[in-house]
Amino acid sequence: RMEKALANALSSGRDITCAYQPLIRAADNQIIGVEALARWQDKELGEISPVQFVPLAEETGLIIPLGKLILRQACREMLRWGDLSLSVNVSPIQLRDGGFARMVLALLAEERFPPERLELELTETAIMNSDANSKHQLVLLREAGVRISLDDFGTGYSSLSLLKDIVVDSVKIDRSFVQFVTQLKDTAAIVTAVSHLGVKLNLQVIAEGVETREQQQFLVDAGCTQLQGFLFSKPLSEEKLEQLFADIE
Ligand code: G
Ligand code: G
Ligand code: NA
Ligand code: MN
Fold this sequence. Notes:
Residues 1-249 form the EAL domain. This is EAL domain-containing protein. This protein is an alpha/beta fold. It contains twelve helices and nine strands. It is 48% helix and 21% strand. Strands 1-2-4-5-6-7-8-9 form an eight-stranded mixed β-barrel, surrounded by five helices.
């Protein structure tokens, strides 16, 4: 039933929207980008979490139209925000589709959205398990100026060989580390090491799930270049994001 409802929502283009969570530059606390997060409000089923519908979409192949819808909607809405960068989550299933890079680049051209402003977030596990074609899709995107980010960094395996073999532009330290960074010595050591490594490799190091000032201070001292989390902002509707910018001015 949910599959049918999701298919309907995708073909109508209504009911599925983007929420936007700001990314903050550690150096000056400025908002430098947002991450688009899919939201689905069904008339009968109510609000359904992406934790539910993203896996369903992956199992049914609906992730292909869902991914495209989110990307297009986010590009359109973001064009109004000057040079903010836009991060969009990508499922490994989308990447396996031979035409992924071509689809993204054509969409960016149609929407007149500069490739340099787009960052695609892929999980460490997704990139690790990717085949030659998927890796080729990433190369094509990077050649066009799109940036690639390793999401949920630290939760998969062989993180270090990934950094050596795959060209990425940033790593996002997973929330499960950030959460305990001021409480657990080992977690603090891991985050510091990963952050130093990222900086040495010329990567942006993004900490996600930042909730307290103490965590912020630790992460900035460790060398993280960008921060994201409830301390700064929850994911916001387009209207709420607009209001946030108006309040800042
Ligand atoms: O939005 P929320 O913060 O509840 O996200 C829950 C999970 O769903 C996260 O793992 C997030 O990466 C994933 N997610 C949200 N939106 C999208 C999307 O557009 N595409 C994909 N592939 N995953 C998404
Ligand atoms: O997998 P991904 O990193 O894309 O997950 C994004 C999810 O993380 C969203 O569900 C978002 O609501 C959630 N999130 C973002 N910031 C915070 C935070 O500071 N604390 C917690 N608990 N969740 C967060
Ligand atoms: Na993400
Ligand atoms: Mn993440």
